[in-house]
Amino acid sequence: MSSLQKYYKQSATYKIFTGIFSELNSFLETLGKIAMNGVATAKFIAKGDFNFREISEQCYRFGITSLPITLSIVGMTSIIVASQVALEMVKQGGSNFVGLLMTMLIVREVGVIMSGFAIISMIGSSLASELATMRVTEQIDAIEVLKVNPIKYLFVPRVIAGLVMMPPVVVIASVVGVIAGAVTAHLTSGLGYRAFFDSAWLGIYMKDLGVCLLKALFFHVES
Prior knowledge:
Blueprint (H helix, E strand, L loop, with lengths): L1 H8 L2 H36 L4 H14 L1 H25 L6 H39 L2 H7 L4 H40 L3 H11 L2 H17 L1
């Protein structure tokens, strides 16, 4: 029996299933730690136990630092879409719907998605590498030795800063995207600015802005 077990453990099937269960176990452990840290962070926020100075510093990091690349990505995406759509719609007699289409596309989807990707790729990766470096260099261990909760000191300010700054960044990026779309539509198809913005104004509602801000919050939570 022992020889049979030894042969089985050396088989490819055993190694495959062992690897799958090992990865699944690691994934579940990571998911559990994320949930525990999220609950602890929510408790500190609910109690109002955080440092306003640290939050202001992280707000600058989330908002001001990420704004140039966010505006660039959203603006370029809007320019590309408008250059492809505006001319064809004007040719087909749909000039009254160009502004409506571009505004709905940017406010509902492009603005928030591209802003989320920009912030996640720039700020999210920066935060992850920063915290990983602190763990490797034992700075987090030193914080714990000093009787300071690392969740409160490191996580809470960053989470609050993201919740505060993500919606304004998305709104600014969406406005820039709409303006870039209007300029591009005018240059490529000759569509007047007034016709573009009249169409946009008639087709956009507060619920669209609400959906945009709600998506922004979810993108921050995912990051």
